[in-house]
Amino acid sequence: MVESKSSWKAWLYLSPALVLLLIFTVWPIINTVRMAFLENYSGLEAIGGRSFSIGIANFTKVISYKKFLDCLKTTVLLCVITVPVSSILALLIAVCLNSIKPLSRMLQTIFFLPYVTNSIAIGMVFAAMFNIIGNNIGSENEIITTAGIINNIIEFFGGHAVNWINAGSTYAANMTVMIIYIVWNALPFKILILLGGLQSINKQYYEAAKVDGTSRKRIFARITVPLLSPMIAYVVITGFIGGFKEYSSIVGVFGKTMGPAGADKRLNTMVGYIYDSLSLNRQGLASAAALILFAIILLVTLVNLYVSKKKVHY
Question: For the whole model, what pTM was predicted?
């Protein structure tokens, strides 16, 4: 009797959250699946009374569309490069922070600041750093070109200025800027997770290794990495999930054109393709692309989980 009353109260307290979950999470997922299988579905045309047949035409159009394949290539490249690089750098930085006692709190705060900063604002800063501001008139009417902070550093060390993001820049230069930005932006969260894992490792393992005269390199490879493997697997899996949803970082650097002037949508991603389809009132194509993206993320996550079962030490 007591349990039934408690159960009734629990459902009552949970009901507001459950209602919101059903409205804003469950129903949008169901509606996305529904629109994906309605051929050439358009919300405005549906309001006008048009009916749509059920089929897989939306999926075939998305897959056969050349720009979608370009979006897929850009997304995969960003994931394959940025996730391993950011995970390795985060591990090394976390190990260093864990071994530094003075100013450790201040350094942790500095490394964590990008995580609480708006990604669009960070992208604008990166755009200013890599931007070339051209043809200012000097005091003697000479033409002065401001190469930007990054190019100034390159030239200081004897290199030549590179056209990173301006009109006429190459795809490789654009991708380099985005890789640097995404890696830098992904570090804080990964450092926080890995640092927490390091601090939870029993210090007796390290003390026993020191007594045996084990080198630091071997301690790192044989103690730190295996005991930290669950956290490493977590940041890698979440990194791939976040990488496949990359969009705001590119908008922050290049704006809505998703690329330099004259190369419209060069760096568009799969999420960007979905937003473009929605802006053109092609909800059917956008829903089909969203389901394809979901399938890719699910497949990559399952592969990561399979590998982690063999490599992760719990």
Answer: 0.85
pLDDT on residue 199: 84
Q: Which residue reads 């026993």 in tokens? A: 208
Q: Which ranges constitute the DSSP H helices of the chain?
A: 2-21, 27-36, 43-47, 57-64, 66-99, 104-112, 119-130, 149-156, 171-199, 203-211, 216-219, 225-244, 248-254, 270-279, 283-311
Burial class (CB in 10 A: 0-12, 13-18, 19+), 163: middle
> Hey, which residues does 137 pair with through a beta bridge?
143
Q: Which portions of the chain are predicted below pLDDT 70?
A: 1-6, 134-145, 313-314
State whether the Cα torsion 78-81-86-91 is positive or negative: positive
Residue type (1 letter), 301: T
SS3 at position 202:
coil
What integer pLDDT is reported at residue 287 of this predicted model? 92
Per-residue pLDDT at 32: 92
Cα gap 288→286, rounded to integer Å? 5
Three-class secondary structure assignment of 55-69 = CCHHHHHHHHCHHHH
- The per-residue pLDDT for 137 is 45
Domain borders along the chain are 65-131+166-311, 137-163
Exposed/middle/buried for residue 181 (C-beta within 10 Å: 0-12, 13-18, 19+): buried
Query: Which CATH class name applies to 65-131+166-311?
Result: mainly alpha
